[in-house]
């Protein structure tokens, strides 16, 4: 009996290690692939898909995986160092997101096209606003004395929950970007499905990490 639960937990850990490694790989390869498809630097538009993938697929995924007990690249670092890596990566993500949004907005002004007229544009705008609000919430965790309302642990729980929602919004925006006419004209067949798999995979891994480490634990403690 004890032996079979040992095998179970080893299998479970191996699966978590494999899915964590796959998430790192998907986040990185997706960003590189998008920069190739958009032919980065050949037009103003090309910077939008690249900066958004860099923001939400690479920096934001890595910023959350920093806390993964299985696949964090910062596993051997102290909690304090991981927190620092987390906010630096989130800051880089927000800078890329704001720049990417500014670029697509300006590009549309140049071409006289309407703004926020597609699901991708609308959900994308909400995602960037969410990410900025999430950063503000994060600052109050770094400097707890700034906010007196709610206990620190309650605010951490809110930060984790709304962060997860924001991350899933980011994955949805990436996916909707891949449904755009521009992307589906450039990438078709199996390559399109492989691309769509990337935010799906990282979304599942992050969802599993946050709910295991935070939400389930908090619930079982109460
Ligand atoms: C989470 C990442 C992303 C966010 C937050 C985002 C956000 C946005 C926003 C807000 C707009 C509308 C701007 C306006 O109407 O003035 C837009 C447009 C656009 N984006 Fe993204 N984007 C993201 C990723 C991508 C990706 C990965 C692609 C390509 C694969 C892409 C392709 C496009 C295209 C073609 C447009 C112009 C057509 C439209 O408005 O739907 N985006 N994006």
Automatic annotation (TrEMBL):
Q: What is its main location?
A: membrane
Annotated localization: Membrane
Q: Which InterPro entries match?
A: CYB561D1/2 (IPR045150), Cyt_b561/ferric_Rdtase_TM (IPR006593)
Q: EC number(s) on record?
A: 7.2.1.3
Q: Which keywords does UniProt give here?
A: Electron transport, Heme, Iron, Membrane, Metal-binding, Transmembrane, Transmembrane helix, Transport
Quote the Gene3D superfamilies the UniProt record gives: 1.20.120.1770
The keyword Heme belongs to this UniProt entry's keyword annotation: yes
Q: What class of enzyme is it?
A: translocase
Spans through the membrane: 21-41, 47-67, 87-106, 118-143, 164-185, 191-216
Q: Which GO terms describe its cellular component?
A: endoplasmic reticulum; membrane
Name the chain's protein: ascorbate ferrireductase (transmembrane)
Q: Which organism is it from?
A: Eleutherodactylus coqui
């Amino acid at each position: 009996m004890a032996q079979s639960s040992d095998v179970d937990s080893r299998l479970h850990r191996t699966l978590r290690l494999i899915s964590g490694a796959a998430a790192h790989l998907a986040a990185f390869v997706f960003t590189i692939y998008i920069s190739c498809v958009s032919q980065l630097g050949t037009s103003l538009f090309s910077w939008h898909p690249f900066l958004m993938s860099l923001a939400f697929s690479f920096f934001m995924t890595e910023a959350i995986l920093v806390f993964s007990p299985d696949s964090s690249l910062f596993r051997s670092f102290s909690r304090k160092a991981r927190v620092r890596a987390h906010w630096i990566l989130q800051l880089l993500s927000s800078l890329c997101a704001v720049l990417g949004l500014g670029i697509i907005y300006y590009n549309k002004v140049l071409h006289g096209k309407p703004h926020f007229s597609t699901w991708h544009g609308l959900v994308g705008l909400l995602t960037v606003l969410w990410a900025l609000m999430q950063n503000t919430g994060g600052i109050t965790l770094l400097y707890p004395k700034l906010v007196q309302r709610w206990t620190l642990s309650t605010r951490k729980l809110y930060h984790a929950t709304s962060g997860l929602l924001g991350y899933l919004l980011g994955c949805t925006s990436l996916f909707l970007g891949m449904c755009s006419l521009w992307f589906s004209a450039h990438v078709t067949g199996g390559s399109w499905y492989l691309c769509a798999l990337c935010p799906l995979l990282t979304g599942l891994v992050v969802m599993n990490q946050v709910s295991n480490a935070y939400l389930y634990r908090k619930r079982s403690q109460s």
